[in-house]
Amino acid sequence: MDTIQQLLQISAKLLKHLTKLPKGEERSKFIDEINTLLDERGVIIERLRQEGFQMDPTNKLHTTLAELDNGIRTRLDEMMKLVKQDMKDLQQSKKHEKQYINPYASVQVMDGMYYDKKK
After folding, report:
1. Percentage of the chain surpassing pLDDT 70?
2. Secondary structure class of 53 (helix, strand, coil)
3. Which pLDDT score, from 0 to 100, does residue 1 have?
4. Where are the domains of the chain?
5. For the residues of 61-109, what is the DSSP string, one character each?
6. What contacts 24+ positions apart, CB below 8 Å, involve 6-11?
7. How far is CA 97 from the centre of its chain?
8. Residues 52-66: what's their mean pLDDT?
9. pLDDT over threshold 70, residue 110
10. Predicted local distance difference test score (pLDDT) of residue 81
11. What average pLDDT score do residues 8-28 get?
12. What is the DSSP letter of 57?
């Protein structure tokens, strides 16, 4: 099979996989599948670079590949934003949990000292 056809198939499979963004526990399996597909795609792209591949805007396969690549990039950005937001939420929940356990941890007091301002 032609390497461009292989790249087209893997890119389409990756884009289809990225259409549904899971939540919670199934996300790690989802990300593992993304990494596998990206690795396969990277090998094929490297093979095309070694062959001296050049994008031809008049070729329909090349324009389809460019469109797929743009779709993959935008969906990967969305996935990255979701993961970053989840990490931020986790950090906030940890912070709130610490404040709930010890609400006076941030208060600085001078125990045992009394200052009289009168002379």
Report:
1. 91
2. coil
3. 52
4. 3-14+24-88
5. HHHHHHHHHHHHHHHHHHHHHHHHHHHHHHHHHHHHHHHHH-TTTT---
6. 6/44, 7/41, 7/44, 7/45, 7/48, 7/65, 8/61, 8/64, 8/65, 8/68, 10/37, 10/40, 10/41, 10/44, 11/41, 11/65, 11/68, 11/69, 11/72
7. 26
8. 84
9. no
10. 92
11. 86
12. T
b/e 25-47 (16+ beta carbons within 10 angstroms → b): eeeeebeeebeebeebbeebbee
> What spatial distance separates the first Cα and last Cα of the chain, rounded to whole Å?
95
Contacts of 13 (CB under 8 A, 6+ apart): 37
Place of tokens 């070729």: 59
Exposed, middle or buried by CB within 10 Å (0-12, 13-18, 19+), for 64?
middle
Give the per-residue pLDDT at 112.
60
Q: What is the pLDDT of residues 79-98, one digit of tens each?
A: 899 889 989 999 999 888 88
Residues 6+ apart with CB under 8 A from 82: 21
